[in-house]
Design goal:
The complex is a heterotrimer.
Chain A (H helix, E strand, L loop, with lengths): L45 H15 L5 H12 L3 H13 L1 H9 L1 H6 L9 E6 L4 E6 L8 H4 L9 H6 L4 H7 L9 E6 L4 E6 L11 H5 L4 H5 L14
Helix pairs in contact in A: 3-4
Chain B lengths: L9 E4 L18 E11 L2 H4 L9 E9 H5 L10 E7 L3 E3 L6
Antiparallel strand pairs in B: 1-2, 1-5, 2-3, 3-4
Chain C lengths: L25 H14 L8 H9 L3 H6 L2 H15 L5 H14 L13 H4 L5
Helix pairs in contact in C: 1-4, 2-4
Classes of the chains: A alpha/beta, B mainly beta, C mainly alpha.
Chain lengths: 237, 100, 123
């Protein structure tokens, strides 16, 4: 089950002489030569040339270093939905942790080594009465320090415009149905909170380890466009 | 600091046009809702956006709106569906017409 | 009533959500990384709010037709110049140099993009 797009491989050649060719073999991602994906395409659009120009100027002038950029890329590689899944699974298995998580998201995820500096992490629990669905109509606010980079659709005009007005139609496009009488709470992320949905724990998972439960927690279930996978790993409607 | 509103208060988003960077979406202006949570005091983003410190701090409230209040049936939602948004205090007025 | 800004789009009519997964390219990830470095301490050149304001200030046509990281590249350029970290002249000169390096001496006009070029793309 893939929760997000494949992570980019490191080490591609680039015309503009990346100063950091060191290949760190402690890197957590597999370096499988057979599945090497050259995701460098020749720049062709104005903004791609602009990125090169700005980066080279910033490095030339000592404002940033290539090493810092590389370190930042690797820092963000480490931020991914699996983090959120671990948090959710722990909340499902430890009621005291869940209570702390709902009361103060920043502090609770800090116990697991996650940091959300400068923003308020608010974890919203889905219940039999309420299903939360997160959107940022004005831009693309997303709990990036936990889940990593948002999916393209989350940032799209279509999602941002329609989620607040046609949540059920949008959910249907995701293959998700919420009973008509249940409250869908569309959460428009308009300020400095970053919202993470705590999906309902699937039936038939009593006694499961947190590790096993985490595999049922998809990225979309933490955004609210889906629910967690069923105990047999199948998609729930 | 003194907060103007408390949880449960009926409020209305000011129906004002503001120039420049604001975080009160147009679709919520003039709409009535209730304070669900208080997210504490923050620098004003409308000032931060122009390099100003944004003090004095302003309280940010989680306000909940019924879908019908916003869209009057012109949408695709259920009867109990709601929208929540974080709205800064200076964008809110008491909804004097609502049951308290 | 004054017209609302393009970015202020909650409730606007729109088509189906394109759910295809897009792996960010290295260019996009670099833009993201550089924006983080410039915004966060120890540099703190600008705030998230200034970034948003800059993106919202793009022309409506640019906003509508540009990709997500494309907008960030424009915002980064605009903010670096606004904050006088770089000058317009040196950015322009370096951009020309970079394009020449790729054999793109003739400037490809950036904006506006035709509707057909972006039809079906999730922006």
């Amino acid at each position: 089950m893939s929760m997000h797009g494949s992570r980019p491989e490191h080490g591609q050649q680039h015309h503009d002489d990346d100063h950091d060719h060191d290949h760190d073999h402690d890197h957590p991602h597999a370096h499988d030569e057979r599945s090497f994906q050259p995701d460098i395409k020749e720049p062709s659009e104005e903004w791609e040339f602009l990125e090169i120009a700005l980066r080279e100027l910033l490095i030339e002038k000592g404002i940033v270093t290539a090493r810092e950029i590389q370190d930042m890329l690797e820092e963000w590689d480490g931020k991914c939905p699996e983090n959120g899944a671990r948090i959710v699974a722990r909340a499902w298995t430890e009621p005291a942790f869940k209570k702390r998580l709902l009361a103060d998201g920043n502090k609770a995820v800090g116990e697991m080594g996650f940091e959300v500096p400068g923003l308020k992490l608010v974890v919203l629990e889905n219940t039999p009465e309420v299903h939360h669905m997160i959107v940022c109509t004005l831009c693309s606010c997303y709990p990036r320090p936990i889940l990593g980079l948002p999916p393209l659709w989350y940032k799209s005009k279509e999602y941002r415009s329609r989620a607040v007005r046609e949540p059920r139609a949008v959910l249907a496009e995701f293959g998700t149905t919420v009973p008509m009488g249940k409250e869908i709470r569309v959460v428009d992320s308009t300020a400095d909170c970053r919202f993470l949905v705590l999906p309902e724990r699937p039936a038939g998972t009593k006694g499961w380890s947190a590790e096993k439960l985490a595999q049922l927690v998809t990225r979309d279930s933490m955004i609210g466009t889906a629910v967690a996978l069923k105990a047999d790993g199948a998609r729930a409607g | 600091m003194n907060q103007r509103f408390k949880i449960g208060d009926a409020v209305v988003v000011r129906d004002a046009h503001a120039k420049g960077h604001v975080r009160a979406p147009t679709y919520l202006r003039g709409k009535r809702g209730r304070i669900l949570r208080d997210f504490g005091a923050w620098p004003n983003p409308e000032k931060l956006a122009y390099g100003k410190p944004g003090w004095p701090l302003t309280t940010n409230y989680w306000v909940q709106f019924r879908m019908d209040e916003i869209w009057a049936g012109k949408g695709n939602y259920g009867p109990n569906d709601t929208i929540t948004a974080e709205i800064y205090e200076h964008w809110l007025e008491p909804d004097t017409g609502a049951a308290q | 009533m004054a017209k609302k800004s393009v970015h202020d789009m909650g409730g606007d009519p729109a088509g189906p959500v394109d759910r295809h997964e897009h792996t960010p390219t290295l260019t996009e990830r670099r833009i993201d990384a550089m924006m983080q470095l410039l915004r966060r301490k120890p540099r703190g050149f600008w705030t998230t709010d200034e970034n948003r304001r800059t993106i919202e200030s793009l022309s409506p046509d640019t906003y509508r037709t540009s990709g997500y990281y494309e907008k960030w590249a424009y915002a980064m350029r605009g903010l670096l110049i606004e904050k006088e970290v770089l000058t317009e002249a040196e950015v322009g000169a370096k951009l020309d140099e970079v394009k020449a390096r790729f054999g793109k001496g003739a400037v490809k006009p950036a904006k506006p993009k035709s509707k057909s070029a972006t039809k079906g793309k999730t922006r």
